[in-house]
């Protein structure tokens, strides 16, 4: 399997993202801590910017010039999952060297995982904490498109 570790990271991102948004309450989309912090919707929109830019960079070796528009909370979630599938597909088709892989992990993929942690924290503050789990034992299948 090409880029097996990166594809497993994408599957892990998807798994943790789904857990972080599971059972969100009606007002969760606009919930923020104030003081200039992003709302849940704004965080997911930023994650979409990151994963979209990553996909375009892998495809074209350049950053996209256009910005994606903000959409409804539900559509932001759908778009993020769709972009994850596209990146997984690219990683399955394109063989990347180790330095490129390291850059993807330390840059966009780690950034997205950080933001998923922010969403999880906001869920707890909205009285919807994520169920405890030993994530090292989670059954995560590598490859979203497989």
Short description:
The chain has 146 residues and is mostly helical.
Report on the structure:
The protein has 146 residues and is mainly alpha-helical. It has one domain. It contains 4 helices and no strands. The radius of gyration is 15 Å and the shape is globular. The mean pLDDT is 92.
Q: Indicate the proportion of strand residues.
A: under 5%
Give the tally of structural domains: 1
> pLDDT below 50 for ≥5 consecutive residues: which ranges?
none
What is the straight-line distance between the termini?
11 Å
Look at the structure and give the mean pLDDT: 92
Radius of gyration: 15 Å
Count of extended strands: 0
Output the number of helix runs. Answer: 4
Class inferred from helices and paired strands: mainly alpha
| Order of helical and strand elements | HHHH
Q: Characterize the overall form.
A: globular
Biggest sheet, in brief?
none
